[in-house]
Amino acid sequence: AMRRNAGEREDGSGVGGRRLIFAAGLLFLLGVLATLIISLMRSNAGVDGGRTPAPISAIHRTGRPLPSDPRIVDLDLRFVRTFPRIARAVERVASETVLTKPSFEKEYWTRCWKEKDFFRIHADPLCTTMWMRQLKYGQVEKVSNLLAVIPKAEEKGNKDKEKPQQSGGMKVAFKGHELTVGYWKPCLDDATGNGESWWPEVIAFMIDRLGGFYHTPAVVPRSFSPEELRRWGRDLQERGEDEYGLHKMETAIELCSTKDGMVAGAMVGWENFDIELLKHHHYWPRFVRFGELENSTQVEQLRTTLFDITTASPRKQIDKVLEIVSIHLFCMLTGTFSRLDHNLFYAKTHPVDSFEPFVYIDNDRSGWRRTTLARTHELHEDGPASVFCKFPAGIIRRLRVMQRQGEGGGGGHTLGRLIQDATRLYAPAETESTRGRFFTSKEAKVLDQDVEFVLRLVDRCVERHGEERVLFEEAWAAPEYLDVMANVADVFNMVGAYRSS
Questions:
Q1: What is the C-alpha R_g of the chain?
Q2: Measured CA distances, 405 to 28, 47, 294 (Å)
Q3: Which of 145, 463, 485, 499, CA to CA, is 20 to 30 A from 268?
Q4: pTM, entire model
Q5: What integer is the mean pLDDT of 346-362?
Q6: Is 165 helix (H, G, I), strand (E, B) or coil?
Q7: With bands split at pLDDT 50, 70 and 90, how would you rate the model's confidence at 91?
């Protein structure tokens, strides 16, 4: 039906690709539709089988209700159960892209990319699916911005060195679709000693989506053959763009090849908005790093000024506080606050009444060997976060949904287990390069312990101040981002215009 509405040929071309979009998206769409219908019926009738509908506290670990519509909770639960299926579907279906000709997929993807709201492409499940698929299977047209791989032992005085830690990488343009660009990051810390590995980029992306942050571009594992890399290196030299192109590619091949001879890496999506680096000495007044507040006087001053928000505060002020707190939570769950040393970027969306969002990129130093609290005290129970007591309601709700599902040791949907489930089908060549696994049970347990710490931190604040003073809905937590039914119907109407034109 989708192909007929789009006026496409039914000759079988791109069938595998379309099945991916339909299989990954349809499960989510049908589940959301059923959930919404049931929720609406219950809310209109006011009863559920003769009983009062279960309150939100039914899924709240501590029994204290969150200030959210139950339908949003249902959407959260549906999403966390569906996302691993989306990730596995992207890995399972290897086919050519269908985003390069008039179709439902191309029209939807174009809307994702050109949407003026930064969060649409991140929060809409179909946008994420299409983005991942394009990064995974898009045909590479050309590369640029090539970096050599320089091990830490060879950094001093190396003429090829272009940045403080250099584990290689290149910008990738995909053939036939001018909107999609990626940045490929190869190598492991085991090979370079630079403290950077490509696979944490994938895990951090999944934490972002499953945790409801929606600030990280799509990321997928992707491997290239030495022949492909050498060809692109020679192309750079022949075009006069990089006289050392082939040499730089050889460094990646030599140091970062897997057992099967391929070179594995993370393909990171290029954002659809311009982004800008917020330099450390310009953090204030846009950003406050909790770990750098020197004394209780500074903390108290911020508590009574910047962080003194209520539900009646201007949206821009609320957004600013939630952006600052959210990136601290993301650092906590990805196991490193080092991004706050120098890699804090924000999207130049030029909003009128909201705060420009931070963009969570460069996650190659993330790690889950030990809990974050065991390695740093940037976010701790008696620190500034516990004094300010302002948290993003959507993220906390999503973490609670997952943690509640995983209680009792029954193999439920904790964040760590969901990520294990989402990555279990990654190709053998890619898992071999990460020492026989992608995300271990031990790492999943460490991540879940960090989640528990965050929830305890929020609980303490709620006990002291009440939820209405602690939890604030984020701009990106609106239910329309997860409810894509209206978006799909609208795009069908647009695609139908191709036939008449």
A1: 23
A2: 18, 25, 39
A3: 485
A4: 0.82
A5: 86
A6: coil
A7: confident
